[in-house]
């Protein structure tokens, strides 16, 4: 991976990156970030994965991202699972894992569903053991198409996150983006901003247009029972 290729992606002198070159059946991985936003603290390279431990510049939050390129064979896939497991043993920070896993997690994620394979069961087992959760994807079900006339469709690309990672963000959205020339659709993950204390109360103006909504609010309001104890004299004495 040349530095010129990485820097062509933008951010100028504020760009930093780590790369894992393609080797054999293993595709390459490139992780880029803006140094004004993220500070890299450590990183680990595997054969099928690249992990970076970041610290947010604005608030000091430390978290881990692991990029993966899943192999095709059962033996090599086990190596990937071992690599990911080793990262969980190395760092206990909020964690996000993403990339092309080259395997589906659920039966519904293939256009030709068939039976649940042993590889799918193993993927689900690894995700469960490592505490990684799948996030519903907006914009489409599948992320890859291939075969004659692109008749085969599957969700091979995704982000998985642990509970600690979800706890740090107010909302998380995974989306399939428009596909360029590749046989894969790009997938984005938006954190929606860091959580800062309890979730705020939200109100949508469109609720006011729903028939009966205002009457329901009035009824709830009059049904509220407020109880209080007068403590002023005790506090001032």
UniProtKB/TrEMBL annotation:
Molecular functions (GO terms): catalytic activity
Pfam family membership, one: Exo_endo_phos
Endonuclease/exonuclease/phosphatase domain segment(s): 58-184
Top-level lineage group: Eukaryota
InterPro entries to which the protein is assigned, alphabetical: Endo/exonu/phosph_ase_sf (IPR036691), Endo/exonuclease/phosphatase (IPR005135)
Protein name as annotated: Endonuclease/exonuclease/phosphatase domain-containing protein
Organism: Vitis vinifera
């Amino acid at each position: 991976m040349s530095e010129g290729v990485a820097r062509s992606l933008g951010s100028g002198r504020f760009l930093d990156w780590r790369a894992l070159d393609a080797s054999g059946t293993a595709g390459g991985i490139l992780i880029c970030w803006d140094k004004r936003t993220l500070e890299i603290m450590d990183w680990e390279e595997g054969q099928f994965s690249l992990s970076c431990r970041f610290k947010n510049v604005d608030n000091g939050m430390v978290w881990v991202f692991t990029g993966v390129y899943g192999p095709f064979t059962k033996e090599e896939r086990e190596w990937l699972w071992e690599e990911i497991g080793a990262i969980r043993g190395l760092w206990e920070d909020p964690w996000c894992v993403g990339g092309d896993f080259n395997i589906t997690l659920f039966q519904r994620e293939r256009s030709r569903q068939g039976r649940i394979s042993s590889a799918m069961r193993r993927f689900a087992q690894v995700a469960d053991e490592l505490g990684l959760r799948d996030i519903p994807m907006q914009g489409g079900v599948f992320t890859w198409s291939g075969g004659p006339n692109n008749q085969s469709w599957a969700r091979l690309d995704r982000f998985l996150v642990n509970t600690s990672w979800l706890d740090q963000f107010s909302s998380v959205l995974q989306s399939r983006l428009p596909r360029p020339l590749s046989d894969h659709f790009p997938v984005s993950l938006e954190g929606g901003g860091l959580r800062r204390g309890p979730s705020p109360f939200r109100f949508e103006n469109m609720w006011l247009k729903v028939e009966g909504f205002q009457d329901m609010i009035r009824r709830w309001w009059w049904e509220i029972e407020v109880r209080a104890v007068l403590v002023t004299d005790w506090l001032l004495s």
